[in-house]
Amino acid sequence: MPKCFFDTNILVYQLDKKDSVKRQKCRTLFKKVAGSGEAVISTQVLQEYYVTTTGKLKLDPIVIKNIIHSFQNMEIVCIGSDLIDAAIDTSIQNKLSFWDSLIITAAESANCEILYSEDLNDGQIIKNLKIVNPLKEKKEDMV
Which residue, of 61, 108, 119, 131, has the fewest CB within 10 Å? Predict the structure, then answer.
């Protein structure tokens, strides 16, 4: 299995009780990739995860802190000034938001082949990184 980077939204949906279909899809995907040892996130994802789950989902901060500790078994890309500089270039070159570009740059720095995200265009390839929206309804899902 190739190395796969997880954007924050895919991790957050695992705890979102409002949409059981998204929650189950994200849980299944994450369990499969994390179980293979090929899951990657960044310090940006950890920060966004904490803020979103405790703010928007109103979950207990101590519970979320414990979940974040469980993510430490994965590869975590530390965001530094070099990645910020590269993200600015990616943002300009691809006309993307800085935050999305920072996710892409972090994934690229870890040599990931796939970026799981709901925020970018499914199937798009940026910097040899394939964007996959695991929540997008595929034609075969509609049958």
Answer: 61
Mean pLDDT of the chain: 94
What's the CATH number where 55 sits?
Answer: 3.40.50.1010
The pLDDT score that the predictor gives to residue 47 is 97
Q: How many domains does the chain have?
A: 1
According to DSSP, residue 77 is labeled E
Does residue 142 form part of some domain? no
Kindly list the distances between the CA atom of residue 60 and the CA atoms of 12, 15, 26, 30, 39, in Å, as whole numbers in the listed order: 14, 12, 21, 22, 25
CA–CA separation, 8 and 58 (whole Å): 16
Domain that residue 21 falls in: 4-134
Average pLDDT value for residue range 55-72: 96
- With respect to residue 140, please indicate whether it lies within any of the assigned structural domains: no
Does the structure show a pLDDT above 80 at 138?
A: no
The pTM of the full predicted model, rounded to 2 decimals, is: 0.92
Q: Is residue 139 assigned to a domain? A: no
